[in-house]
Write a structure and sequence with these properties.
CATH topology of the largest domain: FAD/NAD(P)-binding domain
Strand content: 25-35%
Largest sheet: 7 strands, mixed
Number of helices: 12
Catalytic activity: N(6)-[(R)-dihydrolipoyl]-L-lysyl-[protein] + NAD(+) = N(6)-[(R)-lipoyl]-L-lysyl-[protein] + NADH + H(+)
GO molecular function, one term: flavin adenine dinucleotide binding
Oligomer: single chain
Number of domains: 3
Helix content: 25-40%
CATH class of the largest domain: Alpha Beta
EC number: 1.8.1.4
GO biological process, one term: 2-oxoglutarate metabolic process
Distance between the termini: 77 Å
CATH superfamily of the largest domain: FAD/NAD(P)-binding domain
GO cellular component, one term: cytoplasm
Length: 478
């Protein structure tokens, strides 16, 4: 007789493990299946985010930023650091240690909350059955009243640049370089490409980013995107837009990349090449044929606003369904689904999901861009404030960037917030809360902010919506 659970979650990434823990907290007998093999040869929880994504990339971004600060910025503050050097192997080892601690922590959370961890590859074979093939190839069947598919995603590979060990790599391989490449190519000027390009640029690589689109960060407000591009170029990233990669050739320990731009066909040679052109849902083989679960042409599982699939009792969350491929989005969906299964009313506001690019300065946004609102026929009013006018930013030696608030011209309701600046990823939470509670720009303007803080730029941007910013020239007078 098969083991029976109230809930079986497939995948222990930021969507899956959160869903499993939440379900167990609700008193449901819960299991979570994971097949990811860590560097130690054992099953590791945490999915892409903890193993080869969000966390390890931030460890490298933080280390490389501190290196740049010590090498170039400390002197301005009166700190004599001498000849600063980076030990790349030690930096990578620290990253691996952080990953191991966090993935092991999830195993501890499972145990503390009573979640049964099952190792192996899962397939939904019926609306209430999951077949798991363990690491030795043995298949077992488990029954569940509810199934949550949280299988995640994998990097997209493109025909012109087939991956080659330690030479042409995806985002995972880019986290494992044991030395700084002299010439580094990055295909894709999205979040991952800019972050990884920044890491190795700070450590001395000559970084060229090839982006097929003719616009930079089109999902970000135009004013913020333009400023971000200018700042990254100043740091040394050579970002080539409208550059479509057509082929590559490995020559010894070099990669020759062919691409086309407005001037025609071109070639460029790199010592390493990172392919960061997006991710695709990992859904192939997760669901048995004929079960009735609908997938679109790109492999995403079709779900409703509460993540129900077309089969009753089967849910899907995270990167394998519509919406932004973000860890926090997956986690929130996991909690929503667990609450629904437990009989509670739950809903997620997909209009209030923040996004962050962890370059320096960081870029963060939530809600509409100004161009989005105008395309939708919504009249807006905006307010911006530069960090160059912030006392705390001056003290922090971080005066680059600005905060921008977008509000409905008629109702004053906050429609979006966009920030490029130090700690933008932390400050954007104010915009998320404003959207979640339906706040007006005036609500933010009337809020008392601590001084001196970087967040005061948000306060001033909200004041600037009506032309009433205190620390810069006003556009309007009463």
């Amino acid at each position: 007789m098969a083991d029976k659970f109230d809930v079986i979650v497939i995948g222990a990434g930021p969507g899956g493990y959160v869903a499993a823990i939440r379900a167990a907290q609700m008193g449901l007998k819960t299991a979570c299946v994971e097949k990811w093999i860590g560097k130690d040869g054992k099953v590791a929880h945490g999915g892409t985010c903890l193993n080869v994504g969000c966390i390890p990339s931030k460890a490298l971004l933080e280390a490389s930023h501190k290196f740049v600060e010590a090498k170039h910025d400390f002197d301005d503050m009166g700190i004599q650091a001498g000849d600063v050097q980076m030990d790349v192997k030690k930096m990578i080892a620290r990253k691996d240690k952080i990953v191991k601690n966090l993935t092991g922590g999830i195993a501890g959370l499972f145990k503390a909350n009573g979640v049964t961890a099952i190792e192996g590859t899962a397939k939904v074979t019926a609306k209430d059955k999951v077949e798991v093939t363990d690491l030795d190839g043995k298949a077992s069947t488990y029954e569940a009243s509810n199934i949550v598919i949280a299988a995640g995603s994998v990097p997209v590979e493109i025909p012109p640049t087939p991956l080659t060990d330690d030479l042409i790599v995806d985002s995972t391989g880019a986290l494992e370089f044991q030395e700084t490449p002299k010439r580094l190519g990055v295909i894709g000027a999205g979040v991952i490409g800019l972050e990884l390009g920044s890491v190795w640029n700070r450590l001395g690589s000559e970084v060229t980013v090839l982006e097929a689109l003719d616009s930079f960060l089109p999902m970000v407000d135009t004013a913020i995107a333009k400023e971000t591009q200018k700042l990254l170029k100043k740091q040394g990233l050579d970002i080539k837009l409208n550059a479509r990669v057509t082929g590559s050739e490995v020559k010894g320990k070099e990669v020759v990349v062919k691409y086309e731009d407005s001037e025609g066909e071109k070639e460029i040679t790199f010592d390493k090449l990172i392919v960061c052109v997006g991710r695709r849902p990992y859904t192939k083989g997760v669901v048995a044929d004929g079960l009735g679960i609908e997938l679109d042409q790109r492999g995403f599982i079709h779900v409703d606003d509460q993540c129900r699939t077309s089969v009753p009792g089967v849910y899907a969350i995270g990167d394998c369904v519509r919406g932004p491929m973000l860890a926090h989005k997956a986690s929130e969906e996991g909690m929503m689904v667990a609450d629904i299964i437990a009989g509670h009313k739950a809903q997620m506001n997909y209009d209030a999901i923040p996004s962050v690019i962890y370059t320096f300065p960081e870029v963060a946004w939530v809600g509409m861009t100004e161009q989005d609102a105008k395309a939708a026929g919504i009249k807006v009013k905006t307010g911006s404030f530069p960090f160059a006018a912030s006392g705390r930013a001056m003290a922090n030696n971080a005066t680059e960037g600005q905060a921008k608030v977008i509000a409905d011209a008629e109702t004053d309701r906050v429609l979006g917030m966009h920030i490029v600046g130090q700690h933008a990823g932390e400050m954007i939470a104010q915009g998320v809360i404003a959207l979640e509670f339906g706040s007006s720009a005036e609500d933010l303007a009337l809020t008392c902010y601590a001084h001196p803080t970087m967040s005061e730029a948000v306060h001033e941007a909200a004041l600037a919506v009506e032309g009433h910013a205190i620390h810069m020239a006003n556009r309007k007078k009463r």
